[in-house]
What does this fold into?
Amino acid sequence: MFLTILIAAALMLGLALLFTITLSIAKVRLHVETDPRIDRINEILPGANCGGCGAAGCASFARSVVEGKIAADGCPVGGPDTSALIADIMGIELVAGHPLRPVVRCQARASDRLGQAVYSSIATCAEANVVPGLQACTYGCLGFEDCFVACRYDAITMVEGLPVIDYKKCTNCGACSRACPRNMIARVPFSKAGMYAVACSNHDPGRAMKNICKVGCIACGACVKAVADLFEVKANLAEVNYDDYDKADSAPAAEKCPTKVIVAFGDGQSES
It folds into this structure.
């Protein structure tokens, strides 16, 4: 009996030793070298894992930068300081550009929306967006606060069913833009602290617009006449040419707009 136990113990010990040797050999042969720059970049990232860079998280972003899939200045939360450190690790020079910041492409508060039904059972914009006939404007804000919930930095408040962005708190992570099922929160290049944008997303003809919203773009072209270099009307909606934004003053277009749909966004500016 003792001999049987001894043999079994020896056999188990032998198997354990064999597995240990096999795993050690496999670890050496299957080991994949990791570029040390990935860990260095990951260490200096803010750790928000917000996805604003387009990657799944900060670790994925670091790897993508080293692999050349994402630019060194692709972290919106880290900002210029983090981008400079990443560029130094990568041994490259950054090309100057303007940060993308969110603007709400709608200014219709609850009282401005015509023909909007009330559904007490709906809790989110994602749900409301698939309900036919809930809102006459199929482009505008639904007001169920998906963007507010998605913002992790307390940078959005809801005013009469419309999101208002606090740019002093906003980190430009893009979570609000991704949360909006109607893609109503656009990210535009801010070449100045305050930027003008068209606070409307509706492409319906002007006459139809008047029947569904009090403050939407009616495609009248007054902005184009005021500042032809920066504005144009496409598919019944005014648009800003941000590539040439610094070449002219947008304020005259805002003043001429009959529905006041050209709004100033940004630090020290008002969205209301």
User: Anything to note?
Assistant: The chain has ten helices and eight strands. The chain has two domains: 36-90, 100-266. The first helix runs from residue 2 to 30.
